[in-house]
Design brief:
Layout: H1 21-55, H2 60-63, H3 74-100, H4 112-144, H5 151-163, H6 173-192, H7 197-200, H8 202-209, H9 212-226, H10 235-242, H11 244-256, H12 275-301, H13 320-342
Helix pairs in contact: 1-3, 1-4, 3-4, 3-9, 3-11, 4-5, 4-6, 6-9, 8-13, 10-12, 11-12
Amino acid sequence: MADTTGPERARPGRRPSRIDGAALRADLRRVVPDSAAALVVTLVIFFVLYARIEAGTSMTLMVMPFLSDAGEYWLYWLCQAFGWSGLLWAWITVMLGLLRSTAPPARAPVPHARIERWHRVTSLTTMGLMFAHAFAFFLELVRDNEEGLAWGGRLLSAFVDVFVPGGYATGTGQVAILIGLIALYLAVPLSLAYYFRFRTGTRTWRALHRFVIVVYALSVWHTLLYGTNVWFDGWFRTFVWALQLPVALLLLARLLAPLRADERFTLRDLAGGRRLRALARLGARLAAAATVVVLLAVTITGRDGGRTPGAEGGEMLIGQDMVWGGLAVLLTVIGAVVLSLRGRERPERGARVG
């Protein structure tokens, strides 16, 4: 089945478009029902969280007992609900993306072109949910106005805390919110790169898009580090860890059996002329396999780094400086990949890019 949202061909005498407007418009139409479904799921999660607070059974009350008035802090629970639905949609879109780039079985039940469209649409919805998660937290800080600031001051203070990386300066949020913001701000260019592949070129777009898996990992890390619903060890936190096992398995399958022939790897490649690339591909496969083993161990043992109720927490092992250093390395790698590919291809101007 052909993808009907391929690039528009440039008309004679007109400069080719730098954006795939046809695909973007089609995906924006499809995102309406997908976003509606995401909002329904968000509302269900919100009411579950609200009811657990009202009943006094939420683990959050062990961390922040002042939130026991669910009606007063409803924006906080809406923020939490958007966070969980955002993580769910991120899981879905990553799984679809990995399926799309893995060699299909002989009789695939769903065409790859359709999986690709689902992947693009769910990624747009995910970005919207991520922003709604942050914006609801912003509104809660404005409403709460803990420091008693005037309107200008409370808006600026809440904006810095929520949307400026490194702006949140207290507790675990110093690291957790920074990680979440990095995920949000990386998700936008890496996810939208598909629509600008006329400008960047096919190889560069594909290379950039592969870093989306890093965004997903950061989102999960943000949740496990700061989600008060999974603050303590227990079945729900372990379940969140277990949900990452299918992602790791599919990532390993995608690396072992990629859709594109030029991405496949054999041990004979180590003796070839591109030994560095072959070593990188071998390292990626070994890292994915090790991740599967770690996730299995965490899921089986339940030892997943959660805090123990009643026990005094230790100092944080990760600081903002370490996160900023990791981001610098990541951006350096992304920049190096883009520069290495820039001179080896010309941007697509009309041919279909799958």
